[in-house]
Amino acid sequence: xxxxxxxxxxxxxxxxxxxxxxxxxxxxxxxxxxxxxxxxxxxxxxxxxxxxxxxxxxxxxxxxxxxxxxxxxxxxxxxxxxxxxxxxxxxxxxxxxxxxxxxxxxxxxxxxxxxxxxxxxxxxxxxxxxxxxxxxxxxxxxxxxxxxxxxxxxxxxxxxxxxxxxxxxxxxxxxxxxxxxxxxxxxxxxxxxxxxxxxxxxxxxxxxxxxxxxxxxxxxxxxxxxxxxxxxxxxxxxxxxxxxxxxxxxxxxxxxxxxxxxxxxxxxxxxxxxxxxxxxxxxxxxxxxxxxxxxxxxx
Length: 299
Prior knowledge:
Blueprint: E1 2-8, E2 11-22, E3 25-35, H1 39-59, H2 69-79, H3 92-106, H4 113-120, H5 129-146, H6 153-164, E4 180-182, E5 188-191, H7 198-212, H8 218-232, H9 239-253, H10 266-279, H11 283-291
Antiparallel strand pairs: 1-2, 2-3, 4-5
Helix pairs in contact: 3-4, 3-5, 4-5, 5-6, 5-9, 6-9, 7-8, 8-9
């Protein structure tokens, strides 16, 4: 990092500047320190500005950075631990019900597994919003299985609309408010991206996936798409369910088995998300996803 001076009339403005490389491009990030500063004030302000710039760099999307061949090879080792033998034998009816139950229950739905089965089989009709969302999510995972659509903003909006049609007035709409995620003690554990940046960030996510879908191993692709989607938090509600649908969308597009993240592992799931949000740590997510892999014999 270095101090940059800029003259404006009789005043001299000071900026702390840091340059870094992204692929074959050099990017720059700067922070204004003040004007007409003496050395003592300049050094004091520099200390605080360095911390802020480092935090900004940490918070920047990993989609700005490229993995080396060595790193890609390391991440491919995770894929070898996934059992893809049973891909063509997955009982989709059973998976749909298990996935629908778990993904809704993680978000607080009280619809029991047997009730999910009855609703999906149309033995019972929905009597509440939770039950309607049960049917909606089951349709959404079937859509993820069957669709030939490319990953796009329209697909993301469509999945949200499918999940919450008839239960949320903002179904299929990007939020126009800022949102935070809180724990049981009302502590803020995550802030979604500013709503004014959401659409741009989703476009970046889509473009990154399109650029790397044949370059990076599938499990890493799925994990990064899921985790970055959750970081952006583009909807007023329902981000977890759509994020887990996108996780399976990527896996299925690469002929990998779908993953059913289970309610009993909810706290582990939240922890790996927080590790990623705070430190950009993806390895814990990969290990967790492998532990959740669905086969015919283990749902």
